[in-house]
Amino acid sequence: MKIWLYRGAMALAVAFLILTVVNASWLAPTPQGNPQLIAHRGVSQLYDKEGVGRDTCTADRIEEPVHDYLENTLPSMAMTLQVGAQMVELDIAPTTDGEIAVFHDWTLDCRTDGSGDTRDASMAELQALDAGYGYTADGGATFPFRGNPDNRIPTLEEALQVLSRRAIVFNFKSRDPAEADLLAEKLEASGRRVERMGDAFYGHPNVIARIREYYPDAWSWTAPELEECSRDYVAYAWTGYLPQSCRGRTLVVPLDKQWAFWGWPNRAIARMEEHGGRVLVIGPMDVENHPRGLALPEQLQEIPSTYNGYVWVEDIWTIGPALRPSADRRRADVRAGSEDALPARRVRLGLD
C-alpha cells in the first residue's frame, strides 16, 4: 500500500511540475509590441447598460456629458486620433440608394429626429437628420446635442477619409451577406488596402463567411467563434495544445477572468501568435455575464505589462490618454472635468 501511495504522490508531483513548466508565462518569450486600443464607436457618450436589450434606446440614459462627441460621427472619429486609439470600431448600415451609412441603430427613433427603419432611408434622407437629437442625461429635461450640424450620420466614404491612417473594425448589424458584398465593393472603390491597414470585421456568421472570401487574411470574428475559442482554451490549453477553435481566430480574455487562461499572459500570447491567432482583452463581465469594454483608466493597471494584443475600450476619451499621456490632446479644463466624472461611474459599475 505504501509503495502505491508513494508512486501516486510521485506521479502527481511530476504532473504538477510538467503542467507548471508547460504553462509558465515567465519561461515564454516576452511579447513584442504594445497594447492596441480599439475605440468602440469612436469617442462616445457612455450610458448605463443595466437592463439594456437589443431594442433599448441608449441615447436617453447617457452619463452627464464631459465632452461634445457622439458615437459614429466624423468629429468623434477624428478625435480618436488625438486620444491614442489604434483602431476605431464603426457600425455600418446600407441605404436604399446603394450607399453605406455609419450608424448603430436598426431604427432612427432613438437618436435622431427621424423615425422608421434605418435601412429604409436613402443616404440623403439620413444626412438630413439631427443625429444628436435624442441624447439626454437628465430624463429629457435637456438635450445638449440637438442642433449641432456636426452631429449627422456620415457616409462610409467620409469615414474612410477621416480614418485613412487608422485601422477600422467594421461591425455588421444584420445577417445578410449582401452587406458584406456592398462593403467590399465600397472598400475596393476607395482604394483602401484592407489587409495592409489591419482592418477587421465582426458580425453574424453568414456575413463574416462572405467577407472572408474577399479578405481571407484580415482579422474577423463571430460571437460563436469567440465563445468556442475561449471555452476550449480554458478546457484544454493546460496540456500545451492550442485548440483548433483558436488557431487563426481570436482569444477573448476578460479582465476578471485572466486567472483562468493557462500560461497567461506570455505563454498564451505565444501560442496564439504561433498559430496566427489574436488576443483581445475586454473589461470585466457584467452581472448578467455579458462582455463589455474598459470604462475606467485604472483598469489598464490590471493588464499585464508584457501584454501586446488588442484592448476593447468603451471610453477611449479617458483610457487612451491614461495609457499614453504623451498622446493627450485634451484641454486642461476638459481633462479635469472628465476626471471629476469618474467617481460616479465607479459607483454605477460597482467598482467603488
Could you give me the name of the CATH homologous superfamily of the domain at 50-82 and 94-219?
Answer: Phosphatidylinositol (PI) phosphodiesterase
CATH class of the domain at 50-82 and 94-219: Alpha Beta
Low-confidence stretches: 9-17
Q: According to CATH, what is the topology of the domain at 50-82 and 94-219?
A: TIM Barrel
Order of helices and strands: HEHEEHHEHHEHEHEHEEHH
End-to-end Cα distance, whole Å, is 54 Å
CATH architecture of the domain at 50-82 and 94-219: Alpha-Beta Barrel
Number of strands: 9
Class by helix and strand content? Answer: alpha/beta
Q: What value does the average pLDDT take?
A: 92
- C-alpha Rg (nearest Å): 22 Å
Strand content: 5-15%
Q: Largest beta sheet, briefly? A: 9 strands, mixed
Helical residue percent band: 25-40%
Q: Total helix count?
A: 11
Which of globular, elongated, flat, extended, rod-shaped describes the shape?
globular
Protein name: Glycerophosphodiester phosphodiesterase
Domain GP-PDE: 35-189
